[in-house]
Amino acid sequence: MQMQVSTTKGLESKGSDAEIRKSSIRRISVEGYDTSLRMEDVDDALREHFASCGKIIHVSIPRNYEETILCRYAFVYVNEEDEEKALRLDGSDMGGQILQIKSYPFHETHLENDLAPMKEVKVYWPQQTLKVTGYDTSLPVEDIEIELEKYFSSHGSFVYQDETASGAIKTKAYIYVRGQDAVDKALELSGRSVEGLNFVVTKVYALPENPPTSGFIHPSNLIRFTREQIEDPNLCFITEGQQKKSDTSEGNQKKKKKKKNKKSKTREGIQKKKKKKSETREGKQKKGVEISL
């Protein structure tokens, strides 16, 4: 009961439904890239191509999951203030391909015929992680999670507090949804002011090449680092899963080394026994020679 009261108090309406406005994120369609390339390569190329326009919130490249065929349309999501700069890249060259770039608002449907064959079958709906800001940081973590899940109709949320170098407490929040349609709905809700809420999606984490299709996956296992990050010698990326593998590998190596040392000691012991037997034979042979003399 106390939690419900604090939530209501922290998120009480500061206006009416008349304050509802468009999403703070804009969706742009891109056509003309090489569809024979790997999805990850096209994703990296698009992010690099649009980097000068501002922050890239998300890149979506529909594909047929059974045949891994890329759709001829990709979608780049940017903040409202960066849309005009992104549209100016229409007709620009990307890797020898001329791109056709157009605005594709969330309510538009004229590309549905092209996108329909690429729609994810429910069994292939991968979990996607979205970073969110705009909540009341004075509320308890549990209350923020409840409001996020209710607002975005997400499959779950994860809110935690971290202490900065200066000693300040920083709250970070993430929501989890399944499938690109759910991502679009969340991005469409981003930045809208409804009943005093103003949640903003600041990032959609890129999926790895073969994302798990069921069950809850911790976001650290879904992060796909860029080529620049991987090649940067000054950066090191270790996820929880990789750390466990590393620990297991080290443990296995220690076991192997211990086993090897044990075998080595066993061989040494056998050799010593053989040497002792050989010396005993030689001693007996010498004695036999002395007696015969």
From TrEMBL:
PROSITE patterns: RRM. Keywords: RNA-binding. Residues 254-265 have a biased composition (Basic residues). Residues 26-102 form the RRM domain. Residues 279-293 have a biased composition (Basic and acidic residues). The keyword RNA-binding applies. This is RRM domain-containing protein. It comes from the Eukaryota. The lineage of its organism: Eukaryota, Viridiplantae, Streptophyta, Embryophyta, Tracheophyta. Residues 238-293 are annotated as: Disordered. SMART domains: RRM. SUPFAM superfamilies: RNA-binding domain, RBD.
